[in-house]
């Protein structure tokens, strides 16, 4: 391991020696002296917030301002004011001029955490800062300049967000000039026990108690758990055990009580495909679906009756000496006597009901209910009068 990586770990309290972690630190150190934008990705709880500080403290801007902004925690209506500032009177409550983060951090670094949560208009403003270093305060027409290094982080799949139209493609490529991927804890199995010891030691020192220690079976269980909450979850579990358990030697049975969903944590979640999910956009569609289901049930009932009349299926009968509701097949002669006079085979034709037929029938009944008053019928159908006129003409209901 390079000496500078080890120094960074000691300075920022980073525990672990996994190749993925070392690679992320190495990239951060190499990109720090430049002004390139950096996008840090990784699951929630992996420690992404440490890397912007590494970049800032090892850059030429280390004596400038460092501001961390949680984009997901700022309401959409005020985030432009927070980032770019506003003029007095530009909106209700703007009692004075206010400097935004990009003006305050001029010459320094801004860390935009959860950048995937930015509203679309704010994304356009941020893109302008990245391209030209220019921004405009809310309520102002004056263009201002800023010299800010932007480091962003997200646990959202931005490529998917771009494909879904939720994140600007041009902004994504400007932010991710240098990407840094922070590995999840399950890919750093060799670091899990080291982190547990560090958290246990810190907790013992803080609360003045002996540190907890893991038995071998507990150590194996700790490493095999997937840690969906990553380092943050491991720290919480360690502190909880340290405070609650009186025994300082932790066995697998004790540890298992603090690991939620242990039996299902190793298996993927079964998600129903989106194309199989029925989504209704209006009450009318729900009503149509109910009618279709009822029609289907009626057709199935007709088939069942036809099969019973043909003696193909057993029906419930009561026989002497037998308990009530015992299912027995009907004797062929009985079936013959039950048949209608016409002995020719009867084909049961399944009735179909189209959406247009249901809609036409609903409109007809609504007009009859309100004696032809189209305004009332439209209100009853939850549609506009204009739509009702068009449907009446379409279905020849005049």
TrEMBL record:
Gene3D superfamilies linked to this entry: 1.10.8.60, Homeodomain-like (1.10.10.60), P-loop containing nucleotide triphosphate hydrolases (3.40.50.300)
Highest taxon of source: Bacteria
All residue ranges annotated as the Sigma-54 factor interaction domain in the record: 14-243
A biological process from GO: regulation of DNA-templated transcription
InterPro entries in the cross-refs: AAA+_ATPase (IPR003593), AAA_lid_NorR (IPR058031), Homeodomain-like_sf (IPR009057), HTH_Fis (IPR002197), P-loop_NTPase (IPR027417), Sigma_54_int (IPR002078), Sigma_54_int_dom_ATP-bd_1 (IPR025662), Sigma_54_int_dom_ATP-bd_2 (IPR025943)
Key words, A-Z: ATP-binding, DNA-binding, Nucleotide-binding, Transcription, Transcription regulation
GO molecular function: ATP binding; sequence-specific DNA binding
Protein name (record): Sigma-54 dependent transcriptional regulator
Organism expressing this protein natively: Candidatus Parabacteroides intestinigallinarum
Lineage: Bacteria, Pseudomonadati, Bacteroidota, Bacteroidia, Bacteroidales
